User: Which sequence fits this backbone?
């Protein structure tokens, strides 16, 4: 039987959806457990069916599901998996959504719009999730949409360690692609030893999604290796415009670091053509082979997820994983 059994028969089980089996396997190896066996298939009309292959009664269940395209399919599968665990009498259910679905829709920009991130939070809780683990939420306030505990993990240590190892000897400046991410850029600058900080001033039309206009660079980037940091890259329009603005202001090279590689078309083509030195991301989302390109580096988030799972299972501190900075 898969799982970890401790004194008092406390048992950890790791379940995974079909969206990102590679990440699930990596997490299971880090934990030293097997992924819970599960049958899953689609009916002819698109309905999803799941059934676990062994008892989960009384277990501490962790449900890992990434949410790449088609996001609605994987979100629905995620909810059905949680419901199945609840009805199978799992003692506690922790949903792990490395890239939280609908995270960008966290507020109303105009009247008559939804707050879809709040709706998704309600769906997780209604399905039966007792806890949520996610990585680099688009806005930390999304934690407040849940009545249940939320563990907000940060990929910054993983990404920043890689950047320091490969670019630490160069004259670095950390750059935020917009004013809204300055707080994250400040954390990056601190992690890299107090390097310079800059941001790109841009405007966005709320009526035209995935489009923004980079206007000017605030801060000194001339002759520097610019580390352009963001939580996600979708179509790469914002990032590429920021790269162009940095080069126009004298940056010697630009390295892009992001947590969530959504890479909707034509993101890969844009990044290939932008002359970016390297694009560094994590594997919170899978990247299909046809969207991979030279200069793309994907780092595993599995060790971080495994440490968080173990901390929750052992009733330990998740905050301590980041020196209290969460």
Assistant:
């Amino acid at each position: 039987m898969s799982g970890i059994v401790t004194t008092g028969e406390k048992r950890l089980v790791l379940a995974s959806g079909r969206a990102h089996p590679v990440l699930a396997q990596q997490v299971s190896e880090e934990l030293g457990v097997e992924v819970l066996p599960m049958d899953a298939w689609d009916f002819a009309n698109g309905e999803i069916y799941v059934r676990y292959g062994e008892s989960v009664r009384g277990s501490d269940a962790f449900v890992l599901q990434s949410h790449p395209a088609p996001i609605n399919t994987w979100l629905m599968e995620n909810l059905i998996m949680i419901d199945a665990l609840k009805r199978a009498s799992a003692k506690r259910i922790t949903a792990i959504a490395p890239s939280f679905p609908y995270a960008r829709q966290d507020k109303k920009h105009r009247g008559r719009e939804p707050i879809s991130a709040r709706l998704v939070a309600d769906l997780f809780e209604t399905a039966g999730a007792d806890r949520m683990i996610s990585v680099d939420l688009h806005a930390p306030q999304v934690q407040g949409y849940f009545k249940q505990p939320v563990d907000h993990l940060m990929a910054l240590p993983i990404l920043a360690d890689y950047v320091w190892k490969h670019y630490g000897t160069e004259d670095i400046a950390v750059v935020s692609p917009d004013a809204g991410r300055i707080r994250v850029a400040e954390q990056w600058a601190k992690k890299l030893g107090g390097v310079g900080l800059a941001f790109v001033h841009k405007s966005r039309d709320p009526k035209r999604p995935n489009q923004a206009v980079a206007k000017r660079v605030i801060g000194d980037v001339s002759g520097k290796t610019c580390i352009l940091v963001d939580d996600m890259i979708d179509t790469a329009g914002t990032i590429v415009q920021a790269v162009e603005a940095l080069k126009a202001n004298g940056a010697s090279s630009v390295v892009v670091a992001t947590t969530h590689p959504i890479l909707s078309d034509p993101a890969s083509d844009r990044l290939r053509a932008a002359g970016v030195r390297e694009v560094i991301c994590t594997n919170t989302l899978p990247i299909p082979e046809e969207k991979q390109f030279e200069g793309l580096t994907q780092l595993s988030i599995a060790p971080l997820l495994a440490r968080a799972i173990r901390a929750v299972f052992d009733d330990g501190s998740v905050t301590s994983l980041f020196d209290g900075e969460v």
Observations:
- The two ends are 35 Å apart (CA to CA).
